[in-house]
Design goal:
Helix content is about 40%, strand content about 20%. It has about 170 residues and is α+β, with helices and mostly antiparallel strands. It has a domain of about 90 residues: TATA-Binding Protein. The strands form two sheets. The chain has a four-stranded antiparallel beta sheet. Helix 4 packs across helix 5.
Length: about 170
Amino acid sequence: MPAFAAILSSPSTFYRVAVVASCLLTSCTLPDAASDNKAQPGDTFAPEVVLKGSAATEAVAGMRQPTAGYQARPLVPAVDHVRWSDVPMAMRNVASRQFLGVQSFESGADRFVATVLTADGQDGTVTVERVSSGDFTTVVNIGVFPDAQRDELFAKAFAAEMLRLGAIPRPQ
C-alpha cells in the first residue's frame, strides 16, 4: 500500500493516471453524428442530405439573398441631428465618463428622468424634456450642494453625446 501511495504522490504519474481515467469515463457510446451518414435513434431528419460543389454554393447564395420583395431600410443619420431613443445611451455614456452611476430611469413620451449617484454617495437627477422634434432641454441637479459649473458641464457633455449618437447611421 505505501508503494501505491508513493506512485500517486508523484506529480507526473498522478496526472497520467488522471488523464487516462477521465478519457475512459467520458467516452461516448454513440459515434459522433458528424462522422458518418447513418441515422441514429431520435434523428428528426435524414442525414443523407449533403450538399457539395455547385449545389452547396447555390444553397449558400440563396440563404444570403434577401427575401423577394423585402426592402431594407436605409441607414441614415438622425433627421433632426438627435434621436429621442438615444437618450438612455447618451445618459449612461456621459455619466460613466464623469464617474457617476445611473441608478434608475423613468421615461415617458416627451420626458426622461435619470437618478444618478456620485462617487461620494450623493444623489442627483437629470431631466431631459423633448421640446420639438429635434430640440430638448436638460435640467441637471447633482449632489446635495448645488454646483452650477458641474451641472453645466454635464448638460453640455450630454448635448454633445446626443449629437454624436445622432450622427451614427441607423435605420429610420
